[in-house]
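## retry 2 of 3
previous attempt timed out at serialization; input unchanged, resubmitting
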Amino acid sequence: MAIIKKKKIKIPVYFGNLILIKVDKLTDINKEYELTLGEDHQACVFDEMIKGIHNYIVAYDKTSTDKVIAHECVHLINRLYIDRGIKLDLVNDEHQAYLMGWFFDECQKFLNNGKKKI
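## retry succeeded, writing output
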């Protein structure tokens, strides 16, 4: 298995953890997480519950771009909302926008070795 790096971050306000993984290729995590990702995947989102705490996991391969990060952030928000019983509000979407920005910043910093792009 070729995990390049892994980081766990507490999610503010909504609780749970964001776990970020960077790998050479996503198939490298299939066995550890009981997944069936193919060679064509650049990133994926999945979750697990450990001792009553939700872990939202995003795995990126080494070729992932900001476009891929944004795409996976939408999946993160939707999973968190489902788990918390929150309905998307298209009129009052400030909470969703906050989460999008927070998830994106954390993922981008992780993939860029602590540096946030402008």
